[in-house]
């Protein structure tokens, strides 16, 4: 009988609108020239890809692995995900009956009365001297169940599950954000390592040139204006060096926090040379990549949750059926309690309907509909922002790539010029001062090239992040 009632309850209709994903028109091409091809959306497809391995740096791999275990933002997001899981379990509990057991016993004295014994429905009382004493013992089993005739509980479960999926996407988004922050700070730190090395070399050369001009000023072969310019050039390099050293220290502090340790407990040795690997996207990218961005997935799931809440609000307009049952034993003593004469039971349904509530249910329905409309608008806005984000990053990469090529060509030309100056110095036709000046120009050209390489590498991290973790059709396996 109970199984039949469960089947009846679960087969009841569900009021409210069934969810359909809000339509979004994705462009066939990007304004910045990348072709997009249509593909089936797979929201989870890119969330687990280890895109940072494309930079081929074991230290970066280790830092990201450490941040995944110890970063407090990730730990907090994981706790929020567990909370959403518990909320789904709580919603599902509404489909099932509530069953309880009870065992009680009581002994009490009544007022003055006959000294004869009298029996009651709950026990036996006996009295002497005008005082009655009664005993009562009971053991009961009770159950109550409200069949989900209109889908109120099932819509609630639907909403909780969508919120859980949104929380899952938010967790993936936090992980992606932390991974990208680690990669960006690490690559920026390596860029600063090379800046510091090149600026220290420039400082040494500027100091040598200043000493030469000071001697020439004393000899009368250089003017005071030339001396002032040389002093300014040295001071400029010193201030640039201090700025780079400060930025390097702050990047190291940021990495310490990202991997979950105090800055005083973290140290990353400097390097004087670093090979920036520049992973570039393929000429065509599937439009499904945007559909698996964590923020897009989360926004779409919130819209689904809001849609289900409309059904919850509509179900409140319909009557509720409550089935209750209770059975057990009641007697005057524990001995012999579980006998047929002491058996009691009750069974009965209760049907309830709200006739007047001052418009509360209608207001709740309008609120649910407005929340859904708001979440749909937020979802579409999130997609548009994602498109802008990708466009901006592609634009930056395109221009930085062109700049890097130009600076590399300048560096190569200055290498040739410096080699020519050194040859002329050995031949005695060019002074050491001219060679040092050309060497200084060469170092500045190398710095411009290395800086642009670093920015291009960090720009590729931003593109990885804007595409939801990479441009792979299928997630790469984790080692």
TrEMBL record:
Q: Where in the cell is it found?
A: Cell outer membrane
Compositionally biased intervals (Low complexity): 114-125
Q: Which Pfam families match?
A: OEP
Chain spans, region Disordered: 107-129
Alphabetical UniProt keywords:
Cell outer membrane, Lipoprotein, Membrane, Palmitate, Transmembrane, Transmembrane beta strand
Major subcellular location class: membrane
SUPFAM superfamilies, sorted: Outer membrane efflux proteins (OEP)
Q: How does it sit in the membrane?
A: Lipid-anchor
**Family per record:** Belongs to the outer membrane factor (OMF) (TC 1.B.17) family.
Q: What is this protein called?
A: Efflux transporter outer membrane subunit
Name the species this protein comes from.
Pseudomonas fungipugnans
Output the lineage of the source organism.
Answer: Bacteria, Pseudomonadati, Pseudomonadota, Gammaproteobacteria, Pseudomonadales
